[in-house]
Specification:
The chain is of the alpha/beta class and about 170 residues long. It has a single domain, classed as Methylglyoxal synthase-like domain (Rossmann fold). About 45% of the residues lie in helices and about 15% in strands. It has a five-stranded parallel sheet with strand order 3-2-1-4-5, sandwiched between helices. Strand 4, helix 5 and strand 5 form a beta-alpha-beta unit. Helix 1 runs parallel beside helix 3 and helix 4 packs parallel to helix 5. The relative contact order is 0.15. Catalyzes the formation of methylglyoxal from dihydroxyacetone phosphate. Keywords: Lyase. It is an enzyme of class 4 (lyase).
């Protein structure tokens, strides 16, 4: 049977770090063989916990900066580059985050790229127990944004801008 290796993002707000670490340890056998991208503190703590539980396993971790220090944006770039298939982001619903705009941007990118995304343990439990998680045939649908990216293709925006600047410069002379 073909081995499945997913790109998995792991992020947790401070009040949720212990919860995410416990979830990862509980599911560690299912998580072996996958590639992980984690924000700084979360990734460091999870890798330490996994190494204690499974000292014989070589885990594939990329540890980014701390979320508020740019790690959320680094995670977002990995999503856009297609390196992350699943994002487990345990959020703290009771605490206002100083980097809330970064969190919203990351959430938006997960939706734009149509990756599997969850923000709590219950949803994470359902995702990892889904047969699709280990199904080598499953591939997410990649949205087609070509209509959006080509929206100016047959429009004269550049020509109009050049003509506008030329007119203004002629008037100033």
């Amino acid at each position: 049977m073909k081995q499945v290796s997913r790109g998995i993002g792991l992020v947790a707000h401070d009040a949720m770090k212990k919860d995410l670490i416990e979830w990862v340890l509980w599911n560690s056998e299912l998580l072996m063989g996958h590639k992980f991208y984690c924000t700084g503190t979360t990734g460091t703590l999870i890798l330490e916990a996994l190494t204690k539980k499974h000292p014989e396993v070589e885990w594939d971790f990329t540890i980014l900066k701390s979320g508020p220090l740019g790690g959320d944006q680094q995670m977002g770039s990995r999503i856009v580059e297609g390196q992350i298939d699943y994002l487990f982001f345990f959020t703290d619903p009771m605490t206002l985050q100083p980097h809330d705009t970064d969190v919203k941007a990351l959430t938006r990118l997960a939706g734009v790229e149509n990756i599997v995304f969850c923000c709590n343990r219950s949803t994470a439990d359902h995702i990892i127990s889904s047969p699709l998680f280990m199904d080598p045939e499953y591939e997410r649908i990649h949205p087609d944004y070509s209509g959006y990216t080509k929206r100016f293709q047959n429009k004269s925006v550049v020509t109009e801008a050049v003509e506008s600047v030329d007119k203004r410069k002629k008037r100033q002379k």
